[in-house]
Predict the structure.
Amino acid sequence: MTAEEGPIGLAVAAGTLPGRVWMYANYHCNIECTYCLTESGPKVARRELGRTAMLEVARQAAELGFTGLGVTGGEIFLVPDMPELLAEMSQYLPIVALTNATLFQRRLLSRVEVLAGKPVSLQISLDRPDPDVNDEMRAPDNFAKVVAAIPALVQRGVTVRIATTVESIEDAELDRLCALHRDLGVSDDDHVIRPIIARGRAIEEGLGVAAAQSDLPAELTITADGAFWSPFGPTVRGGRLDTDLLITRTTLPLSVPADTLLRLVDRQPRGADSALSIR
Ligand code: SF4
């Protein structure tokens, strides 16, 4: 039986199960955004998934019939050897990897060259076209670091996407943001706009839209603490991991959480489409 003929492959082909498997590489970060889902920052517990587990998730995801991988955190490039790990995982499936792009100094830029020409997109957060407004919700100098990193990555042949996370944005401001990302070498097709979700630190800040399970696509998400319904599941509030969207503590073999997720999806009423996505 090929991957496409198995229950997961068939469900992915039929569109009943999203094709991407997410991994939380870690939870720590070098900055502290006001809307961070995971309350990430320099002092939080790392909760790293680990190289061996990530490679195994990637390999088994391909074997089961999933069609893509997502890697998020925390800031994933705080994990040692992340460029090489992404390159290795991409031999199994294409990857979208989320980063704040503030660590791309000369040494890291040279190491990410290993991703040039590989099916790996680095999805970088850029929320506003004006430095002061952008940095207000992220970190001092965030804008300057991001607009320096993007063309440096593009020049090195690394695929870059931009994610804009906002409560709302005026048309004129969005037009200026789009002009900026085009100038930086990122096309409109590689720009996603997504809402702030009211989980994690966003709740304390009074930000974001509420998201019930039925609002979120069933994207299998693997963390050091278990498998979740969605990448919006393993969030942190008050220093404690949210478990309302935990589907099983077992992560490997991947068929265990994948089959559990598929059973939950099959129980959903028909037409119950979900609308919110991390990408
Ligand atoms: S939103 Fe991303 S960049 Fe900001 S604190 Fe959280 S993990 Fe770090």
The pocket of iron/sulfur cluster is lined by residues 29, 31-33, 36, 38, 40, 73-75, 100 (CB under 6 Å).
